[in-house]
User: What shape does this take?
Amino acid sequence: MKTILITGSNGLLGQKLVYALLKRKDIHIVATSSGANRLVITDGYAYETMDITKKAEVEQVFMKHRPDVVINTAAMTNVDACESKKGECYEINVIGVQHIVEVLEQMAAGERRPHLVHLSTDFVFDGTKGSPYVETDQPNPLSYYAFSKAESEKVVQKSKINWAIARTIIVYGIVDNMSRSNIVLWAKDALTKGQSINVVDDQFRAPTLAEDLAEGCILIADKGATGIYHLSGPDTFSILELVYKVADFWKLDRSLITPSKSDTLNQAAKRPPYTGFIIDKARKDLGYAPHSFEEGLKILDQQLK
Ligand SMILES: NC(=O)c1ccc[n+]([C@@H]2O[C@H](COP(=O)([O-])OP(=O)(O)OC[C@H]3O[C@@H](n4cnc5c(N)ncnc54)[C@H](OP(=O)(O)O)[C@@H]3O)[C@@H](O)[C@H]2O)c1
Assistant: This one.
């Protein structure tokens, strides 16, 4: 039986991974996150409290469970908070990854070669290409969060273990006891309450259903795939268009949405104007087949009921 260890298992992707892998009989799951387990279902897998910034904890948990695959979803993901708390961001997003790599390298010196699937972001790009990015495009991060993720990629790429980097783009979905929202739930919630919202029309993204991303990571793990993979939804559109689609899907009032420009938002972190991914490599190598945004909203709607 293969052991897959998930870091950041309380997060959006982490929870989807645990729930997807629980359906598999051939996988032993070790879920880990920095606090107590926040998943409603607690049977069928092991849970360990593990803060990736503490190397001794990573060592102790990895040595105890000897994972074949580690999927590293743990990260400081609030882009603006990373700008004001750079030290904390670096500790989690770079040093934490270094700890994982070092401990896996120690294990790789033994009889097995563990596989690391590390999560990264479209924000490693500056968004000035004007069309969706391929895996071989050059990163040029604009914010501290983006810099930290680009640095984490270098840590992984320099390592002596089997590694894959899965980059993704605004992930949406619902999980148990969520610590933070996402664009789809935020827009739906505000419009349902009749609140007016300003939404940018000058940022373009390919929204990613959390289940699709989890499936992509599991395909990487199953196939032992290495290298960089772009895993996003199939379609790229503006955030304004995305929010209009949310309004239309749940029959909410479009007139509450005011188009705006990024520079009026006073956000601490600079965002790339246009990302989106070409996902042909993942389709071809892995059989990755993400849902359209409309199909994704239908799946989310069922879950909300
Ligand atoms: N969500 C997106 O739109 C998006 C877009 C591009 C890339 N990504 C990347 O995809 C990955 C997963 O994102 P996500 O949306 O699942 O993020 P998330 O919901 O914020 O989950 C991250 C999890 O990591 C945990 N964590 C934070 N610091 C930790 C530490 N020191 N040790 C162990 N766990 C720690 C968090 O715990 P708490 O819940 O207790 O805070 C949280 O549960 C991240 O690497 C992110 O950079 C995400």
